[in-house]
Amino acid sequence: MTERTWFDGDLPALATDRLAVLVGGADPVPAARRVLAVARASATPTTILDALLADGIAAVPDFAVVALENGELTAFLRGEFALRFEDGGKRVWRVDGAGAHTWREVAASGVTRAWSGTPGREPRMLTLGTTPERPVRTGPTTASGVVLRTVPAVPRPVAPAPAPSARTTPPSRIPRAIVLPDGARVPIEGTLLVGRGPRTARLDGGRLPTLVPLAEAPRDISRSHLRISSDGARVQVEDLATSGGTALVDAGGIARRLVAERPADVLVGATAELPGGARIRFVGDE
């Protein structure tokens, strides 16, 4: 469980029973409305991030998405937002989103309290108890920063996860190739490593993966940025724990962040958006 308090300010903000969100930048209201539309008791930092990315990376405003529950902290920061958090050993850590092309991700355990907001209103973490905070009610508000404190949780039984249902992807929706930013087409056969200068010595299924360098790639793109793999029945794409991150936009225009080193299924018509505006399209038999 978590207690939340806030500092006066004019930034659109939102509190649920699990997390807090602040949106900034030149035009934060449309993004804040999208967040409000998906915010509910079961919302997670990832679903909130997906809402912020709905119009693509180029339209994403500054934001802070912070969750603290049972000492587990998860946060996404972009632009002029900062995060300070304190662990059980009274060590204080600080991270901000300045300079990140997409966003900066933070995860930590054993966190007792955290603050996120605008750097100009940043409190000294060890004296948070004396700052002019106000209780946060669930729902929309305005703030310059939000404080979260861990409250010991009441143990409760964990329901078993439902068994995954079998799904068959029609062959026409399975990508057969990728189209690079310069228009070059590369067949998806086995495993592809895509990036500014990919290299590997690891075998994949008894053979080396195909290395796909991106011509004139910006420095924000990692040397080995994406792994794309096919087993004939599906195609998956994986962000290789890059600093710039990757967004996957499906054929319907819905964008979501790829979680580092967690493969995601991809279908024909999807696009992987890399830092610097580079796009990789997934296509079928054309």
Description:
With 286 residues, the chain is mainly beta. The protein contains two helices and 20 strands. It has a six-stranded antiparallel barrel with strand order 1-2-3-4-7-9. Strands 11-10-20-19-16-17 form a six-stranded antiparallel sheet. Strand 19 and strand 20 (279-283) form a beta hairpin. It is elongated.
Keywords:
single chain, 286 residues, mainly beta, six-stranded antiparallel β-barrel
Beta-sheet strand percentage?
35-45%
* Strand-pairing-aware structural class: mainly beta
Gyration radius (Cα, Å) is: 21 Å
- Please count the beta strands (DSSP E, at least 2 residues each): 20
Protein topology:
Blueprint: E1 2-15, E2 19-23, H1 29-38, H2 45-52, E3 63-69, E4 72-87, E5 92-97, E6 104-108, E7 111-117, E8 134-135, E9 139-150, E10 177-179, E11 185-187, E12 191-195, E13 210-213, E14 226-230, E15 235-239, E16 247-249, E17 255-257, E18 264-266, E19 271-273, E20 279-283
Parallel strand pairs: 12-13
Antiparallel strand pairs: 1-2, 1-8, 1-9, 2-3, 3-4, 4-5, 4-6, 4-7, 7-9, 10-11, 10-20, 12-14, 14-15, 15-18, 16-17, 16-19, 19-20
What's this, in brief?
The chain starts with a strand and ends with a strand.
